[in-house]
Amino acid sequence: MPPKKRTYAECDNPSLNLNLKKLKKSVSDDSEKVSDTASTENCVTQIEYCTNDNTVSLTSSPLSVQLPISERLLLIEQELCQKLNSINFRSSIEYVYNPIIYAFEVHAMYVKNYCNGYKKILFLGMNPGPWGMSQTGVPFGEISMVRDWLKLSGFVGKPPREHPDRKVTGFDCTRSEVSGKRLWGLFREMCGTPQNFFKHCYVHNYCPIALMDRKGKNITPAELKGEEQKLLYELCDEALTSIIQLLNVEIVVGIGRFAEKRAQIAVRTAKLSVRVLWISHPSPRSVGNQNWDEKTKKRLYDLELAQYFSN
Prior knowledge:
Blueprint: H1 14-32, E1 44-50, E2 55-61, H2 69-84, E3 95-97, H3 99-102, H4 104-114, E4 121-125, H5 133-136, H6 143-149, H7 178-191, H8 194-198, E5 201-205, E6 210-212, E7 218-219, H9 226-246, E8 251-255, H10 257-270, E9 275-279, H11 292-302
Helix pairs in contact: 1-2, 2-4, 2-9, 7-11, 9-10
């Protein structure tokens, strides 16, 4: 008998419906503010519901509205989350966390506060960590950095299935994600305020979901096999390309080699005129990552990117 496969949508996911309804309401509210003479060149995503089985579908419709960039980014992310529902992960993957869904309130606040215009530089991470984005909905979202520097907080729900050693407690989480504290700590040192950093830059994760086996071991996208990896890459590449174009990004900085490689492939496939660079990942598990802050600051200067950080 073939091994049982599992999708992360096995359980009903009313939070996804709720989040998409919030976005739909935002679309409706914004459309009322736009005159009838607005250009029809810009299409927005319409959200349809099937309430009997908690499913949603998203289709493009040429409405005469121009949504804010933050709303359009949220729609791209939610559409990606919906498409990822179709992936049948192998049976060894027991837990799938999607903080964009269960931590939607904080994640949407992050996007709306800090991604409301074009960005020259996109810092690209891989996927959520257990004590960062999985807890807060913010990429590299170490609790104290999100709460005290980015000034974000709010309700965080639960994934459909939770590993007992990887519980989501939101801002009550007492563990600190070193990677997030290093990354945002460096940006705080170089920029002073979030507004100075986000004037030209934005931080985004390539893949919005975290995967774990029955023991709670993290399974990275690079460790997936066969069709499940192929499909995840295709969907995430497509969403990344859309976000790069939406934000008019000129430079993608992969945080680690994996993110750099996926950005290179996405940019090359879409024939985009975008530079792809990299910095080392701030994880303490990465080889040679002592003094990560000093080394990364020097690299940002060497890449001539520090000029876009104002303090």
